[in-house]
């Protein structure tokens, strides 16, 4: 055999060996994170199943859930730039106005398992909205035009300490210039939705 043919056969044999080695390697042998774990799983015949894709479903909004149960709606609108303590104070006072004016909004008294009695509360949720000064004025104007029962809280009331003084501050302003910081409204749902259009629930 000539030296040329011998060298050719040896080269072919080495090439065949390389091809055979490549073909028998596990499919996951790559220089990537987790290579050793995936290779071991391949050798044991345990190929991990691909993870199922995650799908997100949108939960119905609170306002939509409430509309399924009640024909009326209780809404409180607070000015969004108030301090936290002011928002809480305004919300508490305005809620009391709806309770005082509409007995049908109040449910039955509460009681615990020990026999202690507690005061009754609203029978339906109260939705709290946030608005800037312009949004409050717009909502107030719509409510008056539609004769919706409305309670107001104005900025001057932060400086007073009793009901008579509160009422005097409101009476000192015409409707169009009231320095509103909060409103409470109770009306049929469809009518109130139109009145509150453009506002978002308080975050």
Give a description of the structure:
- The protein is α+β, with helices and mostly antiparallel strands.
- The protein is built from 7 helices and 7 strands; from the N terminus they run H-H-H-E-H-E-E-E-H-E-H-E-H-E.
- The strands form 2 sheets. It has a 5-stranded mixed sheet, with helices on both faces.
- Mean pLDDT is 80; it is low at 2-8 and 10-29.
Outline:
This protein has 203 residues and is α+β, with helices and mostly antiparallel strands.
Average pLDDT, all residues: 80
The count of DSSP E runs of length 2 or more, i.e. the number of strands, is 7
Radius of gyration: 36 Å
Quaternary structure state of the chains depicted: single chain
Order of the strands making up the biggest sheet: 5-6-1-4-7
Helix-and-strand structural type: alpha+beta
Q: Helical amount among residues, as a percent range?
A: 40-55%
Largest sheet: 5 strands, mixed
Which spans of ≥5 residues are poorly predicted at pLDDT below 50? 2-8, 10-29
- Give the amount of beta strand, in percent: 15-25%
Distance between the termini: 90 Å
Report the principal-axis shape: globular
Order of helices and strands: HHHEHEEEHEHEHE
| Total of DSSP H or I helical runs spanning 4+ residues | 7
């Amino acid at each position: 055999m000539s030296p040329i043919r011998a060298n050719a056969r040896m080269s072919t044999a080495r090439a065949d060996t390389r091809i055979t080695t490549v073909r028998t390697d596990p499919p996951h042998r790559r220089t990537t994170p987790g290579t050793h774990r995936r290779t071991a799983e391949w050798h044991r015949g345990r190929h991990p199943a691909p993870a199922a894709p995650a799908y997100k479903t949108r939960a119905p909004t609170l306002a939509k859930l409430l509309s399924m149960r009640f024909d009326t709606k209780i809404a409180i609108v607070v000015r969004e730039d108030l301090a936290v303590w002011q928002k809480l104070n305004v919300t508490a006072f305005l809620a009391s106005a709806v309770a005082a004016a509409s007995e049908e909004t109040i449910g039955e008294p509460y009681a615990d398992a020990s026999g202690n009695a507690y005061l009754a509360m609203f029978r339906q949720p109260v939705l709290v909205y946030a608005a800037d000064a312009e949004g409050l004025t717009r909502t107030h104007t719509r409510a008056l035009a539609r004769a919706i029962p409305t309670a107001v809280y104005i900025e001057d009331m932060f400086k007073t300490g009793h009901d008579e003084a509160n009422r005097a501050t409101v009476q000192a302003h015409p409707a169009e210039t009231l320095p509103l910081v909060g409103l409470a409204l109770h009306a049929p749902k469809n009518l109130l939705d139109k009145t509150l259009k453009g506002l978002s629930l308080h975050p």
